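As promised in the previous annual report, we have extended the structural survey to additional targets. Below is the entry for Threonylcarbamoyl-AMP synthase.
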Amino acid sequence: MNLEKAAEYIRNGKLVAFPTETVYGLGANALDPFAVSKIFELKERPAFDPLIVHIESIESAEQLADTKNNKFHRLAEKFWPGPLTIVLPKKKIIPDIVTSGLDTVGLRMPNHKIALELIKLSGCPIAAPSANKFGRVSPTSAQHVKKYFPQIDCIIDGGKTQVGIESTVIYLYEDSFEILRPGIITSEEIETEVSLKPINKKRKISAPGMMKSHYSPAKPIYILNETLLRKIDFNKAGLLSFTKKYDKFFKKVITLSESMDLKECAVNLFSAIHLLEDSDVEIIIAEPVPETGIGIAIMDRLKKAAYKTMKSIN
Ligand code: TXA
Ligand code: MG
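The corresponding C-alpha cell record, generated without further manual editing, is:
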C-alpha cells in the first residue's frame, strides 16, 4: 500500500502495520482513543500494557510530554532517530488508553524512512506496539505480520528490519536513568554518550508490560543446558546456534551469526524463531549467548520466550 493511502487510514482512525528499524509496528493515531482501542482489541493485549508513541520531530515530543529535563535533549540528539524509547511525564493531550492510565508516556523517533514519512503524512503521532498477537514473537518482516493478522488490509512492506529486536526503553530521572527493557542501545552506551548514571537500586518505577513470559513461539522453546542435552530428542528439535558446538546433533540448525557477533544475532533472532516455528521441528532450542552488552537484550528475549517451558523441566 502506498504511504499517502496509509496516512489516510491513520487519519480515519484505522490501523496500519508499518516497518521500523527494530520490528514492525501496528499503528493508530495516538490522539484518537477509539482508534487506539482497536490495537488492544486486535492484539488481544491487556489494557494495563502501555503503548509507545512514535514521533518524527522534537517539537512533537515537546507537545506530548514534559521535556524540560535537559538530559532528554542530550539523549534525543545522540540517539534519535533510533531504537531508544524515552519514558517522560505525559501531557494531557495523550489519551489515557495509550499509557494504560500512567502519568508517563514512552516516546520514540524511529530510524526508518517509511515510518518517519508515515507519521509526517498522517499529521499525528502514531501509537504502535509490535505487530504481533500479545505474548508472541515480534515480527521482523511483513510476512510475519500477515501470519498474525491476515485480516488487516493495510500492511506496508519495508522488507526485513535492520535491528531485529525492540527498542531499549529507558525511564529518565533528574540525573540518572533506568533501563526498563534492554535493547541494542546499551546501558554503557547511554552512560558514556550522555553523562547519566544507571540507577543501581532495585527497580523503582512500575514497568507494566514487562512480563516474565513473553515472545513465545507456537512451539516449546528451551535454552540449552546440560540437563536438556540429556533429555532432548534431537530428531525433533531445531537449534538457534551461537557457537556451532552442538549443530551436528540437531534436525535443523539456524546460525544466528557466523562470526558470533551479538548485533548480528539480535538482527536474526526473531526471524530465526519464526522460521523454526513454521518448520517441521517440534521443539526449539536456543544456545545461550554471553550476557554482556547487546547479549543482555538477547538473553532477556530468550529467557522470557522460554520462561514457562524452562520452569516445567526444573
Ligand atoms: O522497537 C519498539 O519499541 C517497537 C516498535 C514498533 O517501535 N515497539 C514495541 O512496542 O516494542 P511494545 O508495545 O511491543 O512494547 C512497549 C513496551 C510496553 O510493553 C511497556 O513495557 C513499555 O514499552 N512502555 C511503554 N510505555 C511505558 C510507560 N509509560 N512506562 C513504562 N513502560 C512503558
Ligand atoms: Mg511487543
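The domain at 3-198 is CATH 3.90.870.10 (DHBP synthase). The longest strand covers residues 84-89. These points will be discussed at the next consortium meeting with the crystallography subgroup.
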